Fold this sequence. Notes:
By secondary structure, this protein is an alpha+beta fold. Helices cover 33% and strands 25% of the residues.
Amino acid sequence: MTETVDVVLIGGGIMSATLGTLLSELQPDWKIVVYERLHDVGLESSNAWNNAGTGHAALCELNYTPEGPDGTIDPAKAISINEQFQQSRQFWSSLVEEGALDAPSTFINSTPHMTFVRGEKDVTFLKKRYDALRSQPLFAGIQYSEDSRVINKWAPLLMQKRPSGEPFAATRVPAGTDVDFGALTHQLFDNLRERGADVVTNREVRTLKRMKDGTWRIRWRNSIGHTPGETRARFVFVGAGGWALKLLQRSGIPEIKGYGVFPIGGQWLKTSNPSLVAKHKAKVYSQASVGAPPMSVPHLDTRVVDGETSLLFGPFATFSPKFLKNGSMLDIVTQVRPSNLWPMMKVAIDNPSLITYLVGELMKNHKKKVDSLRTFMPTAKDEDWELLDAGQRAQVMKKDRKKGGVLQFGTEVVTGADGTIAGLLGASPGASTAVSIMLGLLQTCFPDRIHDWEPRLRALIPSYGQQLNPRPDVAQDVLSETAEALALTA
């Protein structure tokens, strides 16, 4: 007999973990089942070494503060991203206080966020960005300097033996964070198991079909032994990274028509050299290369994984037709449908700089990649750094009425008309803003329940339904409270 459950979450990453945790808090009587095709959760994009671990709050990422045609800087997107990250911090804080998460240092650590630029044009831009953000309550404490002595105190590796005569500048926000989303994902799923959810690994979902009674029939196969089976669910969330597109296509919902994804892989340079690690405590972002997607903005990062600190630089783009690191070589071909063929072709036609950028990245060997690092760290030595494969990102392509097709940056939730199925497509800043994304999903998919859930949501996330930035006193209180609960020093 086929089991019918309330919720099936497909994919064992941070998105499914976040949604599952929210639903278990809001509706503890619901039966929740998680299916992950690999042998453990958090092994794809959520794995600590597959992402930068930046607590994306727009403190250092230049693509969230675009410069307008008139030269002005609009801080709206940066404020929005920061607001979303604050919701994540509040949610994690509540779970720590409830004992649902382990000691905060196991998944989040204080790490200043910096931006470093060179050349007169970028220095002028960074100064305007600083002026646009420093009066915003969520960006209180941001610092700016063009003084080599000051920047040397912030991040010595940036300034040692730097050539003289070139203009440079930096901003710094001490309150930045480094997040181990792999550890966080594991802890959230451990808590879900304790609350009665079934978290099943080595199980690959093959098809989704809407039944006459309104439930979804989920047919799956065990990775070991290839035993088939099926489950019925009243609600399905597809949080399977790049494979979310394939599963949503198989579901037959019309809302997925016109979507495609372009896979972009990545590599990091990594060092655990104690003398280097001791000299750099920051995540330092800069301007992206021409044609590079925002997730390929170069940055030199402090990483704390399993209690050990190291440095990463990158990412360097690679190419694979797979939608996941453990995907199929045919993924990029099997996604093609009559509805998305032209949008994907139009994206290729309209983005030659992206193709040029990718070709240039693919031609870089280890030495060339360390040469790129030297623009950040002039004293970098080839032998101190090793190459590490990062995660596979599936950049969204979608139909556009005016352009035919566009490359969509960020994350996007695709929801069926009746709200019984939803899936997530896209990349950064997804993990950092997972709570906000899932709150939006709850409002869309459960409109008849969201009002009754609001008291519990406000208990978990005090700023739920409100903006912090327009209320400086409240913003400061929330920032201080979550910093204390998460044992953040800055």
